[in-house]
Amino acid sequence: MTSRSVDEHVSRVRALLEPALARRTELVAVTAALGRVLADDVHSPLDLPLFRNSQMDGFAVAAASVTDAPVTLPVAVTVAAGDAGPARLEPGTAVRIMTGAPVPEGADAIVPVEDTESTTDAVTVRVARREGEYVRERGSDVRAGTLLLAAGATLTARHLSMFAAVGMVEVPVLRRPRIAVITTGAELVGAGLPLRPGQIYDSNSIALSASLAANGAEVVSVDRSTDDPEQFREILYRAIASADAVITSGGVSMGEFEVVREVLTPLGGWFGHVAMQPGGPQGLAEVDGVPVLNFPGNPVSTLVSFEVFARSELRRAGGLAPVAEERAPLTVALTSAAGKRQFLRGRRVDGGVTLESGPGSHLVAALARADVLIDVPADVTAMEVGDDVRVWQL
Amino acid sequence: MTSRSVDEHVSRVRALLEPALARRTELVAVTAALGRVLADDVHSPLDLPLFRNSQMDGFAVAAASVTDAPVTLPVAVTVAAGDAGPARLEPGTAVRIMTGAPVPEGADAIVPVEDTESTTDAVTVRVARREGEYVRERGSDVRAGTLLLAAGATLTARHLSMFAAVGMVEVPVLRRPRIAVITTGAELVGAGLPLRPGQIYDSNSIALSASLAANGAEVVSVDRSTDDPEQFREILYRAIASADAVITSGGVSMGEFEVVREVLTPLGGWFGHVAMQPGGPQGLAEVDGVPVLNFPGNPVSTLVSFEVFARSELRRAGGLAPVAEERAPLTVALTSAAGKRQFLRGRRVDGGVTLESGPGSHLVAALARADVLIDVPADVTAMEVGDDVRVWQL
């Protein structure tokens, strides 16, 4: 059986995934764009505010006519927000105006209502105002053509509010990688069904689909196959028709009923051993131009494989921040098998990281408690308390 | 007009929201629970593994029968994953076994296939094995009744994988606060429509609904009302029928067409001024037992009001981590109006925080660029470079 280092398999996976997941843009409604990643620079299509408007409820005046405040001016008209309002302020008069309403030409200041006394047709302004006071000039927030937001930003409520304010209906975002999930194994049973002897519940479906969703991918299908090659083949080709890439679990190792290996080897797939634990048995294929990543079926192996081989590439393709990579001191000693890179389940504690469990690949409860993977190099067989180790943030 | 401090209004809002959003549990499918918050402790309904099974592809043997390896044993049967398998291993024989398949009684070790040579009906085991090697004992991962995860955890793919592995179909999670959004203003126009003079695009709908979604709330409705009291009243009562709380924007200040204040004051709503900028004009009501928060309509005021009055309470009710509250040194000097707490748009830079814009409440572009609010106390009128200031993470 052929064997590879982790780094080599990472490179091989990337060589297939990178072109398949190459950045593509799609337009989505501003109302549906929260958390998506902006694909292109966005420039404002219009001035904001689009028209000179009042920042206060009060009276629009010419600053010059209230220099000698207190002064009483006739009020001809009221302008509410949403009104077109009068084109011009007659000299020596005031216009009653609401917040957000257009300021008529000839007016250059707003007197807030609390600085006035008024009747229906006259207002006494008690304090003088400077030109421009409480007037929002056209384009004072944004000028048409200004860069509003650069490509690559992850869209927040504030970004979407800005896009809506300039009248945008849709926004160009990176298309999410579209990934199909296929779990395999005659022993797998869906949730809610009774188990017969020898059967287990399928946890890899949710493990993979939730991991994909949490890393910006769109899960286009989730299917479960038995060890029947015809069934697997049919599911595989259906998945390939709609997905940018496919991830399978199970059916890759040295046993006799390895449906994934059996179907994909004749199609040019590579199956062999990657020098890591858990997750050693791996496969990689390309079918009709669609990458197919074949993870082993143990639940912990599947999740560790996702972390090591798929997660970073998916996040890169989706424009998301890379996975945090850190180093931390061990708070416990550990031993590790020679020649295999170990990904141990660990947990942050005061002063470093500790082990969450042994190396057994079936310990899903321990993995659920872990918050990091501790990455022990292949040539290291023992580490002491205080030794610096690479950790992957889960 | 009555006036309040920010802290007082925060308390008043909390007094209404806290009981209205009190933690309630709902069951959701494990497949739909990513990112939700666990409402109750979850204990395992079964042992995991549920049956003794093989960790490797190979041969199940009694360790005692391979002590003198190399030794050749007859192979009677093959057990694949998913098979019930034979009840017992005949003494002095081996069973060909695949990863995950049940280990027959009488077998207490697995010899990996790579340590053997075999024909159809016999296997030569080349190395001796210790008892228990490559056998996963029943319950070695999780014992039935064990605490799998404590209430309060935000569910990740690894948690969901564990729940699926123990056969759970649904999981108890905190119900998300159900919030209705109503924006008001005769000047508001929906995205994609042409603007007439005096009109602006409604950005508060998306600003509030996206802010709610980003903080764990479920947005049950988003409506826009003109300044017609009958229309607003109708929308309000429809919203109240399905929401735990309602947030409105606009129609609260001192102008003449203040639909929110006009409708809610007779129903016992409070409308007045909170000593802050932006976001001074505020309202708060309770209609048929449902809290109604009334934010001012300027887009920046609306978003700042959400941050100051709603966000923390929503996150607490939804079981999410509290908003990070920090202090940082200013990298610029600033002045601030006396008597009003200022929430200035700021941005983290090397060595502290800087201002993103002036205090104008219409500067949506500046808010979009900001990543913090700088919280300047009401009694402070000037701050110097290096002064320590409270910042709210946006």
From TrEMBL, chains A, B:
A Gene Ontology MF term for this entry? molybdopterin molybdotransferase activity
Q: What does this protein do?
A: Catalyzes the insertion of molybdate into adenylated molybdopterin with the concomitant release of AMP.
Gene3D superfamilies given for it?
Answer: MoaB/Mog-like domain, MoeA, C-terminal, domain IV, Molybdopterin biosynthesis moea protein, domain 2, Molybdopterin biosynthesis moea protein, domain 3
The similarity annotation says:
Belongs to the MoeA family.
Tell me which species this is from: Rhodococcus spelaei
An annotated GO cellular component: cytosol
Pathway this chain belongs to:
Cofactor biosynthesis; molybdopterin biosynthesis
Q: For this protein, what is the EC number?
A: 2.10.1.1
Q: Which PANTHER family match?
A: GEPHYRIN (PTHR10192:SF5), MOLYBDOPTERIN BIOSYNTHESIS PROTEIN (PTHR10192)
Q: InterPro entries, per this entry? A: MoaB/Mog-like_dom_sf, MoaB/Mog_dom, MoeA-like, MoeA_C_domain_IV, MoeA_C_domain_IV_sf, MoeA_linker/N, MoeA_linker/N_sf
Keyword Magnesium belongs to the record: yes
Source organism, top-level taxon = Bacteria
Is Magnesium a UniProt keyword of this protein? yes
Cofactor(s) for this protein? Mg(2+)
- What CDD domains does the database record attribute to this sequence? MoeA
NCBIfam families in the record: Glp_gephyrin, molyb_syn
Q: What is this protein called?
A: Molybdopterin molybdenumtransferase
One annotated GO biological process: Mo-molybdopterin cofactor biosynthetic process
Which UniProt keywords are given for this protein, alphabetically ordered?
Magnesium, Metal-binding, Molybdenum, Molybdenum cofactor biosynthesis, Transferase
Catalytic activity annotation: adenylyl-molybdopterin + molybdate = Mo-molybdopterin + AMP + H(+)
